[in-house]
Design a protein that fits this description.
alpha/beta, TIM Barrel, six-stranded parallel β-sheet, 23 strands, about 40% helix, 27 helices, single chain, eight-stranded parallel β-sheet
């Protein structure tokens, strides 16, 4: 027998059912029981899909109402004490307040889950943090799965990764000091799971793919010696990178099995050739949507099967959280681009691929010969397709001018020219980009896509929304305006729809955080810009006001990171293609009189390789691609960029190397913690630290914003400080948006008068 299992499943449902139910619950339109019933139904569907594909174990504990790390904070009693909640008796309403904030407390800080586009809620650890076990989240899901007749394998993030992903708060200390008090809590939780009769427990330690300090690595033997006393078998799961350098350590741990990501790091398999326990081979890509060549996968696995026998398990490389639900519903894509459709695999198709592999390993390839032939045909079709490569793209990149990615003059000279015509007051205010995407906007877009609204009527509706946004900003007295992005469905999808080399799905949603889902474009071929994408919208907005209008683009690294990217050429080359295509748009905006242009790069930090040894190469090509996106602009054109929910402390030279005239960053949830690093580094250009959290509906108090701005003024010279929210306002409602911005502007004017 070959054991086949899943590390984790998408949570939101095939058509984002959980998202819509959550948001209705938050609006008071359905009861908590309604939400719980829908969640139970989604879990049962997920489990049945795994069972139908002959998975030997069903993943449980991976379903969450918001975030699996928030669930773990509750399970270990590590929720922030500042909320005053009891983790043992936490209500669902209080759970959501931890994630979204309330009138008295800002939400738990959010940042990227390793190098993915998923966001987790960062645990807040204090020197006196007292852990307390509450395994109900995991126990209840085991019981549900067993009641449905499934063999459950609970999934929980391990103690070292959990502790590593958190932050120290309050009195200075090293959170590693909390490990000895955390491990007994884990033992208590795992014991509760074992008492439910599970045979295996999956413990995820993806932090092993990072450059962990030796002190943390040295802790693994003693930690797992304690956890292994639990009366269940432990599968230690690693993913997102190679752990070959820790092979001796991992082979010595008292666990019953080890999972390796053999998609991200196939080379690491050699280091575990003599592993004498269960080896779970992650051979199906859990982070991208390309169909596997199953013959190639079997070429890898068959020798392993011969050596390991029943100790060989097969699985995706990581949780399938990062892939859309089901390709079969993409009938539009199948009709429009059948070749591309045949190259893809979503979650359910990946589960089926593993089922085919399991059958081939147990019964021989002949038992699934037709399926293997179809897999090979798809791989051959893609390899030989003439729709992927464009000679003109390669030629343009090969013939870029020398120093194409360098500005004509240094920042000190540029900023004088920019300030001369901008004529902005001290502490200029702006918005990051988007304004609320109202029901009316979404309805108009939906009707237009269905053919129920003409192009002329749709554009008239969008112009009406833009005009409303401009008026509201003028009434608030913002200094640099934006057009609000009413016409944009998503900051990446919008541009992908207008660039060649991209394709789109209808239901290819993946969770970004909480109820926020994104539908990443598919980059399958060489990228070009056939025609202007944003110019006429920005021109229209500028025609409505005498104030400066800022053009808004998404940068090449973020478009790359937030898409499903082709894997037949290097990512660096794809990114460079996107940067060059965007440069055409930037120059057209400049010609149209839009001379403040923001090129958002919120994903630049998340693209960092997990190993520091690989950082320099990534930062070199990512920085070049960003600078290419504005190549050729004049000195008096002001380039902005925005970055959010990332730690930049260790890559500030590269951030400065982007040479944007103004950078805006998320800082409110961390109480301006990030800005301190910019100050210590002496960041040379203008900075706009976010002064309130846009992910919460609460209206910040004036004293909160004043506190943050006064902290910022201690770090950034007043002449170089901008004032703005943390991020775009797309997900907010108009009432709270206007109230939030009004507080921000009033506080700014108060400080502006004081500083003048």
């Amino acid at each position: 027998m070959t054991v086949f299992h899943i590390l984790g499943f998408p949570r939101v449902g095939a058509k984002r059912e959980l998202k819509f139910a959550q948001e209705r619950y938050w609006r008071g339109e359905i009861t908590e029981q309604d939400l719980q019933d829908l969640a139970k139904a989604l879990r049962e569907k997920n489990w049945q899909h795994q069972a139908d594909a002959n998975a030997n174990f069903i993943a449980t504990g991976d379903f969450t109402f918001y975030d699996h790390i928030l669930d773990l904070q509750v399970a270990t009693g590590a929720i922030p004490a500042r909320f005053g909640f009891d983790s043992q008796n936490l209500t669902l309403s209080q759970y959501f307040q931890l994630a979204r904030g309330n009138k008295d407390q800002f939400a738990i800080e959010m940042t990227k889950w390793f190098d993915t586009n998923y966001h987790y809620l960062v645990p807040e650890f204090h020197k006196n943090t007292q852990f307390k076990a509450n395994p109900a989240h995991y126990v209840n899901q085991i019981r549900e799965a067993k009641a449905a007749g499934h063999q459950a394998k609970p999934v929980i993030v391990g103690p070292l990764t959990f502790l590593w992903l958190g932050k120290e708060k309050g009195e200075a200390f090293n959170r590693f000091e909390l490990l000895n008090s955390l491990v007994p809590i884990y033992t208590e939780i795992l014991t509760a799971l074992a008492q439910e009769g599970v045979e295996w427990i999956q413990i995820d330690e993806p932090a092993l793919a990072l450059d962990l300090p030796q002190e943390w690595l040295d802790a693994f033997p003693s930690v797992y010696a304690e956890l292994s006393k639990v009366k269940a078998k432990l599968l230690l799961a690693t993913y997102f990178g190679s752990v070959a350098e820790h092979a001796d350590l991992l082979k010595s741990l008292p666990v019953d099995g080890l999972h390796l990501d053999l998609v991200r790091a196939p080379e690491q398999l050699a280091a575990f050739a003599d592993y004498d326990k269960v080896l779970s081979a992650g051979v199906i890509e859990g982070r991208n949507i390309w169909r596997a060549n199953l013959n190639t996968v079997l070429d890898l696995l068959e020798p392993l099967k011969a050596t390991l026998g029943e100790r060989l398990w097969i699985a995706p490389s990581c949780s399938l959280l990062h892939t859309p639900y089901d390709l079969s519903v993409e009938t539009q894509l199948q009709e429009k681009n059948p070749d591309l459709y045949g190259w893809l695999a979503f979650t359910l198709q990946k589960v089926e691929e593993l089922s085919i592999i399991k059958t081939a390993l147990e019964q021989g390839r002949h038992a699934v010969a037709d399926k293997l032939a179809a897999s090979q045909a798809a791989a051959d079709s893609r390899a030989n397709s003439k729709a992927i490569h464009k000679a003109e793209v390669a030629e343009r990149l090969a013939n870029l001018p020398v120093d194409a990615d360098k500005r004509k003059s240094p920042f000190a000279e540029r900023i004088k020219l920019q300030n001369a015509w901008l004529n902005l007051p001290l502490l200029p205010t702006t918005n990051i980009g988007s304004f609320p995407q109202t029901t009316e906007i979404r309805l108009a877009r939906s009707r237009f896509k269905k053919g129920e609204l003409s192009l002329a009527d749709y554009e008239a509706a969008m112009k009406k929304e833009i005009a409303y946004v401009v008026r509201r900003q003028e009434e608030l007295d913002l200094d640099v305006l934006v057009h609000g992005e009413a016409e944009r469905n998503d900051m990446v999808e919008y541009f992908g729809e207008l660039l060649d080399g991209f394709a789109f799905t209808k239901f290819g949603w993946v969770q970004s955080y909480g109820s926020r889902c994104v539908k990443p474009p598919v980059i399958y071929g060489d990228v070009t810009r056939p025609q202007p994408m944003t110019v006429r919208w920005s021109q229209y907005a500028q025609s409505l006001t005498n104030k400066v209008m800022k053009g808004m683009l998404t940068g090449p690294v973020t478009i790359l990171q937030w898409s499903f990217v082709r894997n037949d050429i290097p990512r660096s080359l794809v990114c460079k293609q996107i940067g060059v295509a965007l440069s055409d748009e930037v120059l057209d905006l400049e010609k149209a009189g839009i001379k403040v242009i923001q090129i958002d790069e919120p994903a630049i930090r998340e693209g960092l390789p997990l190993k520091r040894a690989d950082w320099d190469a990534y930062l070199q090509w990512a920085g070049e691609a960003f600078r290419l996106s504005y190549m050729g602009v004049q000195n008096d054109t002001q380039i902005h960029t925005h970055m959010c929910y990332s730690e930049f402390n260790d890559i500030l030279p590269a951030i400065a190397g982007l040479d944007a005239d103004v950078i805006t960053i998320e800082t409110s949830r961390s109480d301006m913690e990030l800005l301190t690093a910019f100050g210590d580094f002496k960041y040379p250009n203008d900075i706009g630290p976010g002064v309130y959290d846009i992910h919460s509906p609460r209206v910040p108090k004036a004293e909160e914003i004043e506190h943050l701005l006064r902290k910022a003024l201690k770090v950034v010279p007043k002449e170089r400080l901008w004032v703005n929210p943390d991020c775009g306002l797309k997900t907010r409602g108009w009432q709270e948006t206007l109230a939030q911005l009004d507080v921000m502007i009033k506080v700014t004017k108060k400080l502006r008068a004081e500083l003048s």
